[in-house]
Structure formats: C-alpha cells, structure tokens
Amino acid sequence: MSHINDRVQKGIGQVTAPFWRVFGLIASIIGWIIGIAFILGLVFGGIVIFNLSKAGTLDEGIEKLEITLKENRLLRPLSGVIDVLKKLSTPEGTLEITQGSQWKSTIDKNSINRDLGVKIENFKAIDERIKVSELTNTERFPKIKAIASGTILTLDSSEVMFSCITEDEDKSGEILDQDSIIITYPEIEEFFQIECSYDVESFDINDNLLTDTQKIKIKASYEFTTLGHFSTYILQQDVLDEQKRNKEDIFSLINDKNLNKAERTVRSVYTYGPIKLTMGSSSQPYTEESPYNLYIEMKEDDNWNGDLEEITEFSLLIPEEINIITNDFEYSNTEGNWDVYRAKNSLIDEFNRKEGKITTSVKFSINNPPETISQTFIRSRLKYNFNEIKSETITFINNQDE
Q: What value does the mean pLDDT take over residues 28-53?
C-alpha cells in the first residue's frame, strides 16, 4: 500500500513542477520590468536634477530640460510637461493652474445641474372657488390669497425680485409680511415661500356667465449668468505639416471627451440655464499661419418656464496664446491670466433687437504656438435678466345654487 502512495506523490510532483517553473519565469519577467522602469525613472530624475542644478536658475534649467527631452526620441512624449513647469515657475502661473481647474470644474459640473435658477415649484390659492353673491354682502371686498414656494440657486450673487400680478398688468397684488427681494449667494441653494394677496375688485368678472375664471400669477425676476468654455489646441504649422506627412495621430496623447478626433472638432461646454451658449470653429489644431473664426450662438432653452427680458453683458475671456480681431468687443480688464473683452453697447443692443436665435462671430489668431500640441481655452460669460412666472386659476361663481 505504501508503494502506491509513493507513486501517487511522485505523480503529483511531476504535474506541479512545470507549473512552478512557469510561475517562476513570470515572476522573473515582472521583476525585470519593475527594475527597468525604476532605472529609467532614476535616469529621467537625474536628467531633471542635473539640468536644473547645472543651470543655476529654474527658468534656465527648464529650458535645458526642454531641449534634452526634444532631442531624445524616447523621452520626447514627455515634453508636454514643460508647459506645466513653465507655469509653475512663476507665482502667477501657479495661481492660474489652481484657478484654472476651479473655473473649469464649475462650468463642467453645472452644465448638467438642473437645479440652477429660480424654480417656482408650487403656487396655490387658499380658496380657488369664490361665490360672487357672498362678496356683494360684505362692506369691503375680501382678498384672494395664494402661497408660492420653491428654490433658488445661482452661480453669482443675485437679487431675485418677486411680484404678485394678474392678467391685467396695471392691476397687481401685494406680497404679505416680507420683502419682495431675496438676495442669493453663489452656488448656495435657498428655499423660499411667498404669500400673495389680490383684491377681488382687481378682476373684471363677467356676471353674464354662470362661472368666470381669472388668473393670478407669481413672478420672479433676476439676473442669470451663463458661463462657457471652448477648448483650443495649438501647434506650430511646420510640426503639424510634418505629422500630416507622416500620417501621425495628432491627438494621440489627448484625452478630451469634448474632442471629436476623427473630425478634429471640439464641442463647447456651458452651464445649464435659460440660454444655450455655444461656441465653435474650424478643425483643430490651430497654428500661427492664419486667423480663424469663432462662431457664437445664443438660443433660449425651451425647458425653462419664463421669458428673457434683456441681455445686459457678454464677455470673452482670452488667454495669452490667443489674439482676437474684432471691432465689436473692447478690452475691459484682466482676470488672472485672462484678458476680458466685453461686447460694446452697440452689439448688446443688436442682441436685444433680435428674436429667436442670436449669432455673432469674431476672428482670432494664435501667438507663438509650441512645438508640441497644447490645450488652452476661450471662455465666455453671458449676463441677462430673466423671469419665471407661475399662475393659478380662480373660479368666480355667479349662480348661488351651483
């Protein structure tokens, strides 16, 4: 019996031995890969430290590192970090990178935020059916009261003005026991409740009908801000020509969900709001060779209940890599590393005269594009007055028996 067990154990050993040999080989390969990666990391780190220390200054060191990376084919894909290092080498650049992620994340997250704006969720009269015969027996006409409630969320500080109105603009109600203006703070959602009161004598009741219906309304007027950004990729023309000749994938290292690599076009992003603010241009990347057209479109979103009252301001925020060519905008100020160009009053007036879709365009050119593809942004900011209205139906009963 023991010799059978010996044979069994020997057979198991013969079966498992190849497994351990394969496992050992795989482990050795993984070890070699880790070791090589570690050595390459040391070499690259040594190059960085050597160039920076040899140069004596950070700016000169970055410049030498840039040359080293571009001359080495294996390290050339890493040359894109130079732009980041150049910005980090100055306090202004560090601030731009920090704020850059902040403004972009604000736009990106609020492009799908359906809670923005004033949302009048409920508006209901305390008494929806009123008998006219009972009104005539009183010395003083009673009040029709209604309560509105909802939420407010804006990207900028804003004043929301509420008013109680009827179908006749000359006859309005009043807000009870509170101020008609609510002040909001950026990105802080606030709940509101408004009580309206209307004089019955404000309504022209048709006593020839058994019942007559009239509308009471609650109106919220406020300034809304829509923000947008448009990715622009820039590259030297001779480098682009060479990549095209070699049939290289220009955007191979770019990870941008708004970039259509096949068509080389970019979809702009804007915050959700009463107006859709889009920007677009020709195929990318852009070079120093010729000016390009930036197309801008503003269109009311049908999902919003209310009316656009007036556009008050429209601005383009331009980075140092881009120069705009236009007579419709004028330089206003600087925000960080962005030059703010505000639309002239003549253009704003033209916007407000148009009905439906609003379009305009500006020309832009590229200043000193890099040898490796780089991303920057054209930003937009649109301010306008908007109102939301919610109504309730009141039924006046002329027949006492109904």
A: 53
DSSP string for residues in 336-362? TTEEEEEEPHHHHHHHHH--S-EEEEE
The 10s digit of each residue's pLDDT in 174-208 is 999 889 999 999 989 999 999 999 988 888 888 77
Domain 117-222+388-397, CATH among 3.30.1150, 2.60.40, 1.20.1740, 1.20.1250:
2.60.40
C-alpha span between 258 and 231 (Å, rounded): 8
Distance of alpha carbon 145 from alpha carbon 195, whole angstroms:
7
CB-count burial class (<10 Å; 0-12, 13-18, 19+) for 318? buried
Taking the C-alpha atoms of residue 221 and residue 118, their distance in angstroms, rounded to an integer, is 9
- Mean pLDDT in residue range 239-255: 92
Side chain identity at 197, as an amino acid letter? S
Q: Residue 119: name the closest of 160, 163, 149 by CA.
A: 149
Residue 366: other Cβ atoms inside 10 A? 22
The DSSP H or E segment spanning 295 is: strand 292-300
Give the residue extent of every domain in the chain.
2-89, 92-112+224-385, 117-222+388-397
Helices 58-71 + 2-55 axis angle, to 10: 130
Nearest to 341 by CA among 297, 299, 378, 298: 378
Backbone angles phi, psi at 95, to 5 degrees: -65, -40
Q: Please name the helix (run of DSSP H) or strand (run of DSSP E) that holds residue 41, with its range, or none.
A: helix 2-55
Question: 138-147, 315-324, 348-357: which range is least confident on average?
Answer: 138-147
- Find where tokens 């008013």 sit: 163
